[in-house]
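Reading is simple: the token line describes the chain's fold. The lines below illustrate.

. . .
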Amino acid sequence: MLIQATASEARAIIGAMASVAAINGAERVTAADRASLVAAHHYLLRQSGPLDLAALPSLTPRQLAAALPDRALAAEAAHMLTVMAFVDGSLDKAKISAVLDYAAALGVDEPYIQEISEAAHGHVQAALVDMTRRNLESITGKPWLQDDAMGWFLPYRGNQADPALAARYRALGSMPAGTLGRAYWEQYQRNGYAFPGEPTGLNEAFATPHDCAHVLSEYDTSPRGELLVSTFTAAMHPSRPMEGHILPVIFSWHLGIKINDVAGSAVGALDPREFWHAWARGAAVTEDLFAPGWDFWGCVGESLAALRQRYRIPPLAE
């Protein structure tokens, strides 16, 4: 869902984000921090005209809450403030503490707030476990009460392979060029991925919508692309967006903190401009690829261009 904010509300949110970035002193604000403020203002808050960083208001948590009486906008502001704490690629206790103060004033106490609090207090593993659980809740649509997340992500190991399912996916290589099915197959061939149903293949309940999001959004499978496609997904599929999608990839691909063997890890993959652009693109999409009703097999013969138009996916290049 696209964010609705007035010019004054947008300036208040960006001002608070700038305060988080400068919590350790103005001299510690990075180029990435500044780029993030400009991009969030332009893409996600959809404000026209240049942003004067020097003229931003410096609001206390209570003042920000007073400036944002709409509960939905306050929740979005808490999302944005949380991301701002990690843009510079570090797990900074002072920045996280500032975000916690803003979230409390805004009346936001979602699981992701608890996760960043845990991480700031040195309980990173506990935060990662919760992120994995929330990710599975988002994907499956129900509470995740099991301990074996990897068992769900890799269900075809051992004698659980499904040759018929794998063959159905491999047959997508015969689809016409430019169709969703052919592009999906090409992505797997290009990356050497195992198809769902093959012993090392990922669960199709995750792999298929996730990799279709890659194909349709045009984000590649590099660490940078994985971070962007998960951000796109969080806005498209608003079920546990922060704790289930955005924070896990920031920790995995930007902070270099490995969550599990499926996700992997890298450092510095968050491109500030493209991050907020991906969030805005996902918010504009009208079809949720992770929704139970989305029919991959009913779409495999359709052209990518037609699907992007029907789902209103904004172009990759602005």
Remarks:
- DSSP finds 16 helices and no strands in the chain.
